[in-house]
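User: I'm putting together a teaching handout on how multi-component assemblies are represented. Below are the sequence lines for each component of a complex, exactly as they appear in our records. Could you produce the 3D structure of the whole assembly as structure tokens, so the students can see both representations side by side? Please keep the chain order the same as the input.
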Amino acid sequence: MYSEKVMDHFSNPRNVGEIEDANAVGEVGNPQCGDIMKIYMKINEETNIIEDVKFKTFGCGAAIATSSMATELVKGKSVDEAMQMTNKAVVEALDGLPPVKLHCSVLAEEAVQSAIFNYYENRGMTPPEGLKCSGCCGSCHHHHHEEEE
Amino acid sequence: MEKRIYVDNAATTKTDSRVLEAMLPYFAEVYGNPSSIYAEGRAAKAAVETARAQVATAIGAEAGEIYFTGSGSEADNWAIRSAAKALKDKGNHIITTAVEHHAVLHTCQSLEKEGFEVTYLPVDAFGRVSVDAVKNAIKDTTILITVMFANNEIGTIMPIAEIGALAKEKGILFHTDAVQAIGMVPINVKEMHIDMLSLTGHKFHGPKGSGALYVRKGVKLTSFITGGAQEKNRRAGTENVAGIVGLGKAIELATEDIPKKAAYLTKLRDTYIQKMLDTVPYAQLNGHPEERLPGNANISFSFIEGEGLLLFLDMKGISASSGSACTSGSLDPSHVLLAIGRKHEEAHGSLRVSFDTENTLEDVDTIVTAVAEIVERLRSMSPLYETFLKEQK
Ligand SMILES: Cc1ncc(COP(=O)(O)O)c(C=O)c1O
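Assistant: Of course. Below is the structure of the complete assembly, with chains in the same order as your input.
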């Protein structure tokens, strides 16, 4: 059901861990949904380049693989570039995800956006327009609606 | 294939070679239609009736009380829908539990849309429904009680004989989904006052797609598939002769020596549970410590999600299952684990292992070692574990 790329990033995830002196941290999802992603970034405040990025994820194989791929995609990029990373880009880089797992890629995009949001917040600056997420879990809201029905 | 350890026997089992051997002639040799009057037909008919007697004997019923179906799900659907239809003038209330298989739960939910009232009784922390709770739920309008014999996820065995006695006393029809219990727990439908019972062959080394419904003589059973006169005019369709033969043979073998098999599986199960809880911290057993299926062990590991655990186990050649949402194809974790009070994240991190007599104590050690290693690895990636450790300090 998973592509080889997904299995590779799940079984050998890149950039797992924490960054002690991170200046950008984003966490999205919640245990109810079964997915939590936490992304740490070390961003150069002069150049706005993401010099290091690490993640920790509680979630299924796809959640771990999308976290790993998302960190790979933004590492070494500028904050502006990283903001443009879409969930679709993560899915494509992983050679696709099963439809029921697409929400994991949304979570990965939100985790990156959330970390960048935090970067601006930490510096007392207004985050740029268009940053979608500050710790919410879009994919999950939908699911809880269903549960209430 | 490399040597693998298959411990998902609650999902399905390997067809026994003796069962397969019994089935084979019914494809190309005895291929007649059981409804035909000539020799080939009569031979097929005789095989179906032999199997009917085998199924009846295994549960203490009479052959005339057994109806063949295409699955356990079908038997559940049929039993519940028939009771509802046949008794709708008497009342519209059905009692069941929150931990039934979806074949029962979704059938009940669909009947609710048709105007029936369903009580989904809660269970205790071990997954058992109390007989008193069933008693207190009974109303004048109650027409059916349906409680599973043993739970497919956590293995908890329900007080079926007691509920049967209660139902008999109150004159209410009693159905049980015994899909997981056949061949694991001795069952006698007369002694236990069971009016209807569902079973399916593939859970006890029979073929897939071959189930049966027992209906006590005198209980009205409405027709489920209209058409030809098969199964006493109640389930049309040319019989799955080979499948039925396999079901008959399998149930005979499965109920041959239950105490011996149960003792062996209980040893594997209890050794596994003990070793796992001793080896892996922050792990807890789901279900009842004793009143549980001999081969079933279900353990929740905090801070991790079950799918990753299953994928890594698969890479190590071990096949098991989980109550995590990710493995269920839906977004919700197991309704059974939530019903026994597990938090969502604990339900997501569950691992069900269901042993068979082909498994060994050596397998148990291999699985415990593998799980311990994988859980540690997944925890090292888990933000929940990170938070937990920080709070500990
Ligand atoms: C308790 C229980 N009921 C019903 C079923 C459905 O049986 P089948 O797969 O034959 O439809 C299963 C197995 O999946 C089960 O475990």
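A couple of points students might notice: Residues 135-149 of chain A have pLDDT under 50 and may be disordered. The longest helix of chain A spans residues 102-122.
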